[in-house]
Amino acid sequence: MSPSTVVYNPTHAPEWPPLPTWRAAFLGALGLNGNVTDAAKAAGIARDTAYKAKARNSDFAADWQTAEKIASDVLLREAWRRAVEGGRTYKFTKDGDPIMHPETGEPYYEMVYSDALLTLLLKARLPEQFSDKLRVEQTIKQEPAYDLSKLTPEDKLALLAMKRRLAAAQAETNGEEGLADG
């Protein structure tokens, strides 16, 4: 076989067609904003192209998942900033002129924090202390099934009669008299 001969090996076949160069641009944009449509536009592809590539390529699907985690971290950082670090809100007169600080002469501002985001962050980070939900744990003890083959013929008949009486009583309660004879 000459060095230029290509042998097809189905167990080690490369993905065809290979992922084009848009992959890095798409994943980078997805990591920044978490939006597939915007990421596809940034990469210059159709949204469906990205989803098809994700379905066909496990490495790309794993990278996609990582990009989504990065986007979640971006959201968490912004929520943290608004809740803990706050932001400036400049004050203006009713005419729209900036109010100036009397001592510094700089535009006057107040620091504003988001109590709602702080509450959500506390609930996410410390659910045992800040969760609104009551946590209920229940353990069900599974009894072993009965081995009916060990019953005597008389016990089996008594059990069958009891089952029929129970079915008749339920049918009578539901207004279905006469249907329990089955």
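Second entry:
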Amino acid sequence: MIYAILSGLTLLDVILFVVAMPHIRIERSLPLERFTLPDNATTIRENIDTTFTCDTRNYGYYADPENDCQIFHVCLPIVFGGQRSETFMWSFICPQETIFNQERFTCTRLEDSIPCQESAMFYSLNDKFGQAETEEEQPTVVESPMETSQEDNSLEPATRPY
């Protein structure tokens, strides 16, 4: 049956058919692809360890001690419909001669940073994202400068005593 189908085709038809067929994409696990680093990352840091994972981590920024804190990661766990969860990870590399300071969440010179191997002790600072530290930092409710007039329900500027 296949011979009957192919017998009426020219060689060009067969080539076009094969080229147009969908190809199965083979997953090639290049180590740096997992970290989504820029292509030139190895010009800043020659050997990059790719063992860091965001599994079981809260949302936040994390120094990577295995890469001497020159690389840091942003972890974002998401729960879909209360059933399935997935954690997204984005990786960044600090400029030459700087490391990620876990205490300050920024790349700083080595002498201005905490020791890289102590970074894990500061991972808990990520738990404070979205929280006000003191009562003074709590958002305040500002009343609208417009008041509703009792007579015609139109908005009029509020009167202020000067």
